[in-house]
């Protein structure tokens, strides 16, 4: 691995550092997100070197080429982000929206929803504690930071459009979608008590 890094130009070494740090900070990369595209293709070109590098650190790179998604996994519990209740619910709702909207789009289209769609789905779930605007905005900013969504417009507006990135498929796998729905319903039932 060190030999391969030494053979890189200074620019390539800097790109390697930037890409590795981005993965460590964000966990996910999406080919469809403008500020991820260059890192995604660089990682694809030097995947073996990245694999060796992250293996030393105890991580593994999971790649889903059809969706253009990369996930860094294998971290210890101390390196795992613990989501708050509202953040978890918003993530689960976005995953459900992605699943529903995927049926109506082609593979090349982005999955887009509005902030109002999150409120509608949240109300449909009949969770007793309502999702306030501050918590929703905070949750969306967190998910944007981890490259799970891209915000187009004013995040404080209910008409703001969100592009749900395919990395959400790696955060919550398709085979877990029924479990996601059951988890949301369980939270709703606990709130009703």
What labels would you give this structure?
9 helices; three-stranded antiparallel beta sheet; alpha+beta; 2 domains; Arc Repressor Mutant, subunit A
Helix and strand layout, with pairings?
Elements: H1 2-7, H2 10-26, E1 28-30, H3 34-45, H4 47-57, E2 60-64, E3 69-73, H5 85-102, E4 111-114, H6 115-124, H7 133-145, E5 149-152, E6 161-164, H8 168-171, H9 177-192
Helix pairs in contact: 2-3, 5-6, 5-7, 5-9
Structural features, described:
- By secondary structure, the chain is an alpha+beta fold.
- The protein has 2 domains: 2-79, Arc Repressor Mutant, subunit A (Orthogonal Bundle); 85-192, Orthogonal Bundle (Arc Repressor Mutant, subunit A), CATH 1.10.10.
- It contains 9 helices and 6 strands, in the order ααβααββαβααββαα.
- It has helices at 2-7, 10-26, 34-45, 47-57, 85-102, 115-124, 133-145, 168-171, 177-192, and strands at residues 28-30, 60-64, 69-73, 111-114, 149-152, 161-164.
- The radius of gyration is 18 Å and the shape is elongated.
Structural classification:
alpha+beta
Strand content: 5-15%
Architecture per CATH nomenclature, i.e. the level-2 architecture of the largest domain:
Orthogonal Bundle
Rg is 18 Å
Succession of helices and strands: HHEHHEEHEHHEEHH
Q: Helical element count?
A: 9
For the sheet with most strands, the description reads: 3 strands, antiparallel
CATH top level class name of the largest domain: Mainly Alpha
Considering DSSP H and I runs of 4 or more, what fraction of the residues is helical? Answer: 55-70%
Any idea of the CATH topology of the largest domain?
Arc Repressor Mutant, subunit A
* Order of the strands making up the biggest sheet: 1-3-2
């Amino acid at each position: 691995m060190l030999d391969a890094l030494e053979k890189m130009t200074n620019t390539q070494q800097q790109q390697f550092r930037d890409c590795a740090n981005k993965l460590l900070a964000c966990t996910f990369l999406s080919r469809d997100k403008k500020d991820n595209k260059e890192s995604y293709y660089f990682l694809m070109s030097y995947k073996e070197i990245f694999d060796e590098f992250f293996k030393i650190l105890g991580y593994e790179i999971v790649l889903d080429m059809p969706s253009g998604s990369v996930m860094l996994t294998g971290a210890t519990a101390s390196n795992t982000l613990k989501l708050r209740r509202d953040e978890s619910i918003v993530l689960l709702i976005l995953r459900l929206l992605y699943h529903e909207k995927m049926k109506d789009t082609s593979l090349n289209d982005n999955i887009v929803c509005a902030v109002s769609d999150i409120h509608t789905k949240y109300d449909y779930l009949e969770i007793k504690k309502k999702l306030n605007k501050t918590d929703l905005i905070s949750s969306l900013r967190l998910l944007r930071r981890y490259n799970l969504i891209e915000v187009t417009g004013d995040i404080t507006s209910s008409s703001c459009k969100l592009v749900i990135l395919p990395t959400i498929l790696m955060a919550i796998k398709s085979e877990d979608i029924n479990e996601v729905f059951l988890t949301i319903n369980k939270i709703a039932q606990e709130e009703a008590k």
